[in-house]
Amino acid sequence: MTAARLVERPTDAVLYHRGPDIVSAAAYLHHCHALAETLPAQGHMINLCRDRYAFAVAFGAAVLRRHPCLLTGERSDSVLATLADTFAGSYLTTEEPISDRQLPVCPVVTGTPRHDGAPANPEIPADQLAAIVFTSGSTGAPAPHHKRWGALADRSRAAGIQFALDATAPAAVVGTVPPQHMYGFETTVLLPLHAAASSWCGPAFFPGDVQVALNAVAEPRILVTTPLQMRGMLRAETSLPPLHAVISATAPLDTELAAAAEAQWRTQVLEIFGATEVGSIASRRTIEGDRWRLYPHVRMASHDDATVVTGPFAPATALADDVELLGDDQFRLLGRRTDIVKLGGHRASLSGLNQILTGLRGVTDGVFLVPDDLEQRATARLVAVVVAPDRAAESILGELRDRLDPLFLPRRVIRVAELPRNPLGKLPREALLRLVAQDGLPDSSEH
Questions:
Q1: Residue 33, strand partner residues
Q2: Hey, which end of the chain has fewer CB within 10 Å, N or C?
Q3: Model pTM?
Q4: Is 344-446 assigned to CATH 3.40.190.100?
């Protein structure tokens, strides 16, 4: 494949839902061309659109104009200034009126499109740089990753095959994940362009919004969400209409949580494995075991004590996870390389410690914070930050004392009203450090 069209669906196919209104492939292409005509001749688009359809139109216009689209969940002036200094000709696109930004702004207007004949649907070179996606910053500063159009298109087609999407009965996807994140970008923006699916573009974050959104679209319905949001919907006992599937990503999904969701919503819960660096590359049904199946055209191989992933028009990428290969298209995850905490010659899994913490009675959220100098300073210890409105810190510490190796017992349990999670449930490390500092611990070296 040397090129792929912007939309690989029939012109009358439904791509997006905007409340009661539907957007066909033809209407989407008209909107993309109209916006592309207003963009600068050259530059990098910083796509700030909150509305999912406006985001999709802005991205499509950038592809048509051959402008890389910068995708970041950060909107602060300092972050935008850094992007502008790094990427030549940066400008903003947004559906919201803003006038206080220092960068040029190209407004996204998605009213009734002009229908002056069939819209052009050009072939886009497979090696065209289409997006630069930034990591969440949960393990440090956000890092950029380049995405070629051929890789994005191929992975969308592969997802359609992986999840058995049927052109005779296209699925309606309701996503709770913002489009600026790689997971949301792939499943709710790109997927309708290349596979038998449409995407809901109205509110879908709070349990009530998700319920309304799913009731507004026809079967087969697919809910794209995260473990954190699944837990919130189950806790709220949200009643959902019949679902073809629930798809989860961004964090490991506990088998008990997946089983509870399957039982309450009478559906199957599927899990995607991926990362900003490589995109989505594998899936499994969580309750069926720990074997993951690779997407079509994706391959894994051992190389220099690491597992390397390859796919069409994507660079070979070493995973941050230890993997046991099981034939050509399956593997088992053994854990993240950065997940291991070492103290006094002993080792523990950070995710395992977090699971013990959040499994305690009355702890609704929690995380262990690892100081930067844990392995260098003999007296350094972990800190636990918890959301537990009805429990005292001393009580939590006492229960942990019965469950943990003394070396990994937190020096301190800090109770907070909520953890500074982003919309995906991830915890940017800098935000967590600031929260802990407010409790009187000036920096991670003091923990």
A1: none
A2: N
A3: 0.83
A4: no
